[in-house]
Amino acid sequence: TEGVYFHIIIKDVVHALSAVGATDLTCHTGESLDLTVKLMDVTNASSPIAVQGSTVTFGIVNGPPGRDATIPNPNAITTASGLATATFVSGTVEGGPYVVEVQETGKPSKVAFNITVTPRTGCTSSNDCPAGQVCLNGSCTETSGEDCTSDDQCPEGYHCEDGFCRPDGSL
User: What is d(CA 131, CA 139) in angstroms, rounded to the nearest whole number?
Assistant: First the structure.
């Protein structure tokens, strides 16, 4: 008999998750970094397609002792371009690397970012410094935070100002 025959092959959909930009990063304490990944459907390897509307999760899986870095909004939805971004907020603990893993919900593949947090070494004003520090001669310097009524109650290199020991030369 004559007829039309079809042969149908069903393939699993294959998604590929990749970092946009470098994966080994550095930032200063008190700063934040945007981490971006791209999700592509690579079922047809010769013409990959951006995946829109999938949820990817960014999670800190490792870091230095006492780590206080966060990712305030760890879940992101991919855009029409397949991009998803979350913000890493470094906190006050330096060191690393912090390892941030990114994974599409329900899929096994992951992307990892390695982030080293360094102390801020330069400043132009105290606003450039983490909490509890002031800018002194271009460097962030700890304030002692000790209550005082006179300079002799402060450690060497500090003076009493408004009831607190502050580094000499600070405003």
Answer: 14
Distance of CA 170 to the CA centre of its chain: 31
Query: Hey, what are 17's tokens?
Result: 């998750």
| Phi and psi angles of residue 110, each rounded to the nearest 5 degrees, phi first | -135, 155
pTM, 2 dp: 0.67
Contact between 141 and 134 under an 8 Å Cβ cutoff? The reply is yes
- Residue in the structure block whose two tokens are 């899986």: 61
In the block, tokens 């002194």 appear at: 136
CA atoms within 13 A on the CB side of 128: 14
Binning the chain into helix, strand and coil, the percentages to the nearest 5 are 5, 45, 50
44-64: pLDDT as tens digits: 888 999 999 999 999 999 877
Mean model confidence pLDDT for the chain: 85
